[in-house]
Amino acid sequence: MTYQITALPGDGIGPEILSGTLQILEKLSKKYHIDYNLETYDFGGAAIDNYGDPLPTSTLEACEKSDAILLGAIGGPKWNDHPKRPEAGLLALRKNLELYANLRPTKVVEGATRFSPLKEERVAGTDFVIVRELTGGLYFGEPKKLEENQAIDSLTYTKDEIERIAHAAFQLAENRNNKLASVDKENVLASSKLWRQTINKVSENYPNVEVEHLLVDACSMHLITRPTQFDVIVTENLFGDILSDEASVIPGSLGLSPSVSYGQKGTKLYEPIHGSAPDIAGKNIANPTGMVLSLAMCFRETFNQNEAADELENIVYQLIKDGITTPDLGGKASTEDIFNQILQQL
Ligand code: NAD
Ligand code: IPM
Ligand code: MN
């Protein structure tokens, strides 16, 4: 089979972290006899500049026909006052492809505890996945409007939306350590009350999975004090956005975290969780690890090539253990240095 892949470099550090990743894709695919067809499209600010739209029809159609989308990052100060921001393109892409489940893993690998801002003994062994609901909640609820003296965002969830993300999370927990933490704000929000009821109902289908309910404020604290006790965390869109950036620095840097998003349609979107990092764009110092680990997820999830994914992940983790890192982890390596090391070792 020939896989169809769409590359979306985007803005800021996006093109810097994606270009070397596509070279890795080429090399690793040859090694494991994976056939693919790759096309690159404008997205985000780059697409606003060329088409006046962050998600042009040509880009959306290419994505819809793809097995996998590899996205760098979008956004930047240049487009903050544009009527349609780059971020709106990303939200529209997720919504159009119905990518309701977003998996964001955090792992502190053995031999790399020293990069954590937390005490090494506290983070050793950390290995959990945040399952973030991606197409509902405050991001998409109506009405949504900004007037001179009032602004409205609506936090809505239907039972169906909660059920499908709950099944995704329980299934993942069953394939891991049968532990699920569901995060909400049930003491205040109606949507969280429905969330908790629905999680409890869905849990009846997964008797082996132990469920813990946490309020989001307390969870943000527990992530720091007891990160090793989490396995799968499921939460709504905005809470997942915030908690996953927090989680990403447990191993040392926002530049480390990958993600995959999926729905019923089959197309999967692979992207690091960080943004376009305008403060370091163009300097060849962005950490490409989150992007490269997203490619490893693509080998695992789309190509069904666990061995290739393991090989790539091991190379990436070994570089970190050896202290061959970009400046965000205290090293002196450039983005290109990291890519050259990975390519050489493949
Ligand atoms: P950001 O994630 O871009 O950067 C936050 C901080 O982390 C910055 O100091 C940055 O230099 C650092 N950082 C991020 N990724 C890094 C990497 N790979 N290597 C080293 N350092 C890294 O968040 P921000 O500055 O709040 O947002 C910048 C723009 O990115 C905004 O327009 C925002 O909307 C957008 N954004 C896009 C995505 C996406 O494309 N998926 C995600 C988050 C933010
Ligand atoms: C992310 C980003 C996006 C989000 C923005 C850019 C719309 O922060 O992927 O985490 O909030 O989902
Ligand atoms: Mn985010």
Describe the protein.
With 346 residues, this protein is of the alpha/beta class. The chain folds into two domains: 1-100 and 254-346, Isopropylmalate Dehydrogenase; 127-249, 3-Layer(aba) Sandwich (Rossmann fold). It is built from twelve helices and twelve strands. It has helices at 14-31, 45-51, 57-64, 86-96, 120-123, 159-175, 190-203, 216-225, 237-248, 289-301, 306-321, 335-345; strands spanning 2-10, 35-40, 68-73, 101-107, 127-133, 141-146, 151-154, 179-184, 210-215, 232-235, 260-262, 268-270. The strands form two sheets. A ten-stranded mixed beta sheet has the order 2-1-3-12-11-4-5-10-8-9, sandwiched between helices. α10 (289-301) packs antiparallel against α11 (306-321). The longest helix has 18 residues, at 14-31. It is globular. It starts with a strand and ends with a helix. The relative contact order is 0.16. 3-isopropylmalic acid binds at residues 75, 87, 90-91, 241, 273, 275. Substrate binds at residues 94, 104, 132, 217. Pathway: Amino-acid biosynthesis; L-leucine biosynthesis; L-leucine from 3-methyl-2-oxobutanoate: step 3/4. Catalyzes the oxidation of 3-carboxy-2-hydroxy-4-methylpentanoate (3-isopropylmalate) to 3-carboxy-4-methyl-2-oxopentanoate. The product decarboxylates to 4-methyl-2 oxopentanoate. Homodimer.
